[in-house]
Amino acid sequence: MFIIQNTAFIPLRLSITDRHVSFYQDILKGKRINRIMLYSSSEDRAVCLPDDPDTMLSQVAELDELSLFLNLYDRTQNLFVSDFDMKNLLVATFPVNSFVEHLINREIDIEKSYIAANGILSSTVVGLIVFYQTKLLKPFSDTINGSVTITLNKTTDLVQDFKLSDYITNTLRGKFIRQIIVSDNDGLHNPAYLDILCRDGKRIDHLPLDFLRAASPKDFYFDMLDIDFENSYLRIRDMSADAGAINLTFIY
Amino acid sequence: MNKFVSGIYGVEIPLVSTSTKIYLPDIAYLRGKRIKHIDVVEVLKSPAGIASLSRNFFDSAYLTIVELNTQSEQIRNLPVSSLATTRNRLFINRIADFPRSYIDVSKIAGADKTNKCIYLVFYFDDSAVWGIVPAENNRTQIQPLELKLTGKKTFFNFSSVLQNRRVQNIILNYPDTTPTGNAGLDYSNSGDKYLTLSRNQRESFKDVPLRLFLQTDQNYPLLLQNIMFDLQQSYITTVNTTADDLVSVFFNLVIDDNLIVKSKI
After folding, report:
1. What is the ipTM of this complex?
2. pTM listed for this prediction
3. Which of A38, A46, A67, B100 has the most other CB atoms within 10 Å of its CB?
4. Mutation test of the interface with chain B: which of A88, A103, A113, choosing the one with the most B Cβ atoms within 10 A?
5. Sequential pLDDT tens for chain B (265 residues)
6. Which of A35, A78, A83, A87 to probe the B interface (max B CBs under 10 A)?
7. Neighbours of A156 (CB within 10 A)
8. Contact A4, A80 (CB under 8 A)
9. B136 touching A (Cβ < 8 Å)
10. Closest CA to A99 of A14, A216, A13
């Protein structure tokens, strides 16, 4: 079980000369980093970048020829994660959702930390998902007080943005969301991202829905999000022109 | 959720076509040890070079564990398929009387048992090896450990980074190229390779199939009880020694990075 408070999506574009790749982002400076994971396409379903619908994420098979290793320095310049094989941190578009649960839970030196790349490099693009904290986590309870399910109908368009307030009634106003469950009609598993802004400043920046799809002992929960639905979106970024429907269940 | 363990032993149980009830071997090191979990593993070749029974037959083999102190069959006729590592591990929590415990293979045809073995892995407490786990156990490091195989038995080299470090988990990886630029072991060639780790001159991890250290999928992570291994007394064995076998095996070790506070008396 892992509790998400904030996420950052960082596109990593690796070229043939990149052997040490930085993932510096201003927003991560001074933050407690909980976890870092990779996101890619699978052979069954391709997905593109949330802010660049023309760029497809590399498939898992391509990553097999490329070895990526995570290296993290903490504030005392201590290399506390050295050459951690990032295949242990990989989620791809459904059905690939197999990773080792590893917690970092430290402030890292975001400028000095890097990803080492060995092997065959071409134009590889992966998504880096950084889970971080800006405040203490709220006490967790798995008691369900209620839930609301919405259905978003995807057309054959590859790119669609759904503003959540168009689908959410006032039932969820003032409710603190602890879990979001994703299900797909017709088993199509359309690739998409959740882009959530909360009233207290928490931010879920383009979290791939695939993190919330496969039920497993390694489920993801949220840190009691007070979602500003007017400024939150589900963003479809599919490379297949399949119509379908995605159900989002908000549990509070 | 897996429990803390401080010892892991792989045990090969040979079958013959006429086998009906196979008693577990009496292994001196396991006498009196509390068994936390048991895995059944489909191996390409055991350390003795025998192929294991196919997993297709795991539903037809039944394990009975006789508890040492009470001499009662507290775990009776458990299908060994329930010990397969694709699920989270059962908490056995028994001190087993090994020579009286057995596997019933009477429902498996003779031809399917010929020249085969059942490979069980026992996870247990070993007070001579386990370390203190701090109450606030929330800081870890991850360090690499790589070994290039040179033959049937390859010992680890000394590592100043890992010396006297308290190990909480060992994660096996299959990179195409390791961080040092060597060709990495492929999954297809890992089914006949075994890890043995020593501590205080004891081989407390013995003949453990490498694949058990691959911890993705639906498994909870292994929980090793802060063990300080003697790497130079530890090694990997391989049955096959082709060019595809004698490559680098690459692990990531999860190491306790908490302060151990000693109490003053």
Report:
1. 0.88
2. 0.91
3. A67
4. A88
5. 789 999 999 999 999 889 899 999 999 999 999 999 999 999 999 999 999 999 999 999 999 999 999 999 989 999 999 897 666 788 999 999 999 999 999 999 999 999 999 999 999 999 888 888 877 767 899 999 999 999 999 999 999 889 999 999 999 999 999 999 999 999 999 999 999 999 988 999 999 999 999 987 767 789 999 999 999 999 999 999 999 999 999 999 999 998 765 544 4
6. A83
7. 11
8. no
9. no
10. A216
